[in-house]
Design a protein that fits this description.
Length: about 130
Amino acid sequence: MVAAAPRGAASEARDRMQIIDCSCCGSALALPEGLQEGGAFACSRCGMALRNVAAARDFRWEAQDHSLRKHGATRGNLWGGLVGSLMWLVVLAVLMLLRGRFALGLFVAIAAPYLLLLAGLRVSRPRRPAVL
Ligand SMILES: [Zn+2]
């Protein structure tokens, strides 16, 4: 039988802190004992604003889908959203063709800024917290 080593004040303070996972980036956050129920705090890594409520305390980052952890959306939601957000370009091209006034230069001039915006959002997504 091994006797437990005497515990220091820092170890006891650490035990009193509750560890929760950030719902945006998955960082482990230590909540101080004095934080009241419903109290607001922010993730030090991504800036996500959270509240000390049961849903936040019960959330576990590792229990989430791999695609959700990596991209911020499930695979179906990610691809559905991407395809859905590009449908207006297909509709525009079809309407231009039906009217017999399809102009490639005009279509590219309309589509290119939107596609660049999507690419920019994809690049900056990992640094941006989710919006509640
Ligand atoms: Zn975070």
